[in-house]
Amino acid sequence: MTLPELQRAIYQQSVEEQLFLLETLVQALKVAQQTKLERRAIVARLWGCLKKNGQPALTDHDIGPMQEERLVEKYLK
Asked: What is the pTM of this model?
């Protein structure tokens, strides 16, 4: 269903059904926002794990060999 079709269908519903749709949209948006916030928190924690006291954070160049080593251990040993 396209957005214009959906908009037309909403106007054809009763007020009770429109309110129910509104509640459903609000709940869906809350879940989407919460998921986004959770991802940000996870990234912030992981970023903190990569930092070493008094040293700069690891770069992609530094992490590449670690990833390769882990994959070799996981799949080839």
From this structure: 0.47
